[in-house]
Structures are given as C-alpha cells and as structure tokens.
Amino acid sequence: IKKKVPITAQEHPIILIIGEEGTGKELIGRHIHRCRTKEDSFFIRLNCTGLDKETLLSTLSQNPMGTIFLDLIDGLDNDSQQELLPLLKTILIQETLPKIIASTTKDLSREVEINGFNHHLWQYLDQVVIKTVPLRERKEDIYLLVQYFITHFSRYLGIKPKQITKDALAILEGYHWPGNVKELKNIILRIICSIPEETIDV
Questions:
Q1: Residue 151: is its pLDDT beyond 90?
Q2: What is the CA angle 64-70-76, rounded to 5?
Q3: What is the number of other CB atoms lying within 10 angstroms of the CB of residue 143?
Q4: What is the value of pTM for the model shown?
C-alpha cells in the first residue's frame, strides 16, 4: 500500500479503499489527501450510513477544493447513490471539484447483486482500489505499531514513554485482533493510563 498510495494519489480523483473495520482506511485517505493537495485544503469525512442526499450534495457543491472522504459508502441510500453518480462523472473531467475517497468494509460487487447497490456507481468507484490488510495477517507490524502508539500517547499525556518486555509483546503478537489496528491502539492507551510502572510486562 505504501508503494501504491503515492501513484494513485497523484493520478486519480476518485479512489475506493476496501478493508475490515479498524484497518486504517481513513488514515490512508488522509495520507492520500496530504500527498495531492495544498496544506490548507480541507479533508471532510462523511459517514454515509443514514446520510441524506441534501447534506451529501451541499457538501460536495460548497467545497470545490480538497477531499471528501465518504466513509462506509455501501450505507448510502439509493437516492443519494443516484445523485452522486453524475457528480463523479464531472469530477473525472474537472479540476475545480473536490477529490473523492470512498471506503467500505464490503465487496461492492456483491452489494450490487444482493442489496441493489447502484451498478454504475460501483463501476466509477472500482477504477482505483486500495485494499487494506487485517492486522492478523501482518503480525510483523505489531512491534512498530506498539512503539508508535506508546510514543504518541506518551507525548499527548506529557509522560515518559514506557518500555515493553518481549513477553508482553509476544502476547500482543499472538492475539488475533478482530478489531485490527483500532483495537491495538485502544489497548495501548488503556495500558499506559492504567499502570504506574515504567515497563509494560506480563
């Protein structure tokens, strides 16, 4: 993904990110936004579940620059899907409209067949796709993520970063992480806030 993101970020105004909950889809979206826009441009996240078409259309039309992140786009109702379609067509040919990054935890091709997701909208979204990998399939990243979260939260809380033992790290690496990176992040925060010792141990 690190190798793929810069290319897609520079070359295409519509991107779809697919992955399980907690795998960092919004973080990737924000990274793409930073790669291809000015520092002062906006990044607006819209949760598509229950989103009405008026809010969707006004957000897209009133913010001509920057990035709109459509989170859980499979939750968009049929009317909103239909209204979004011509806007995506226009975004592909005009530079004065916001870039679109959509995310989903589902296979949209199956959503087309089973739940009636708009087929034409799916075709526009399916041109540039980034798939996130669940944490259980990249256990080698856990050490780096743990170190990052310890440093991040320690700086935020104004405390000295804690050390973690090999035994404690082995427990984290042996867990299956159904909540992915988001679950790991929350656990590290709880540990930092709950133990007074300078070392995280079993």
A1: yes
A2: 115
A3: 14
A4: 0.81
